[in-house]
Write a structure and sequence with these properties.
- The chain has 221 residues and is mainly alpha-helical.
- It has ten helices and four strands.
- The strands form two sheets. A two-stranded antiparallel sheet has the order 1-3. A two-stranded antiparallel ribbon has the order 2-4.
- It is globular.
Length: 221
């Protein structure tokens, strides 16, 4: 593992917004692939938030990016644990840092993310900073660990929703938006309750439980 020194103090700001950072990376990835290590080397003061956004995007967005959920889920667990214990620098496995995004995949992921940020940017701003404080980070970290664990599980449909919530956590950290943090926690609890129900259903009724449940729902519609 190698350390990646990042500043994760929510009171700090960066010259670039998250959208501007993504646009800058989008421009540089038009003609060549990009490694995760390249992203980590240019984090700036938004540190942990940008890492969370990038590691969750491949699973959060409706673009074909197979094979990322499990390794990135593991990486998010490791990062969240370091947030939980108050680390100011990251130790990231080299196997994660060497993962490469092809120009096609990175362009699709970043373009969708920028489009999404364009829509929600008017509603995001620094506020309720007590929910971005160091004292509140353990609550965020615990939610991240649980959501990332769902990304790792080899169960259908457990990737997208948790990854979307992790992405929202990352955005809230980048933009110092405590209200978005609270919304993300609420969505996290709902997601965890839903997937707990799904897992219990599978354990009780077997792997065909999801198919039977979906058929029942569509019959009622």
């Amino acid at each position: 593992m190698q350390k990646n020194h990042v500043k994760n103090d929510s009171a700090q700001t960066s010259e670039k917004s998250l959208k501007e950072t993504l646009e800058s990376i989008l421009e540089t990835t038009k003609s060549h692939s990009i490694q995760v290590s390249e992203l980590f080397n240019n984090l700036g003061s938004k540190g942990f938030g940008i890492i969370l956004v990038f590691l969750s995007l491949p699973s959060a967005l409706p673009v074909p990016a197979p094979g990322y959920s499990t390794p990135f889920g593991i990486a998010i667990v490791l990062i969240a644990f370091q947030i939980l214990i108050g680390k100011n620098s990251l130790k990231t496995p080299n196997s994660i840092k060497k993962i490469t995004f092809s120009p096609n995949i990175s362009q699709k992921i970043l373009s969708f993310a920028i489009s999404f940020l364009n829509k929600i940017e008017p509603f995001i701003k620094p506020r309720l900073l007590q929910f971005q404080s160091k004292q509140f980070r353990p609550f965020v970290a615990i939610n991240l660990i649980l959501l990332a664990s769902l990304m790792i599980l080899p169960i259908p449909f457990t990737n997208t929703l948790p990854a979307m919530v992790i992405c929202l956590f990352g955005i809230s950290i980048c933009e110092n938006d405590g209200l978005l943090t609270l919304i993300s926690i609420a969505l996290s609890l709902l997601s965890l309750a839903f997937y707990a129900f799904i897992i219990i259903l599978i354990m009780t009724l077997g792997p065909d439980a999801l198919t039977n449940l979906s058929n029942w729902i569509f019959d009622k519609l």
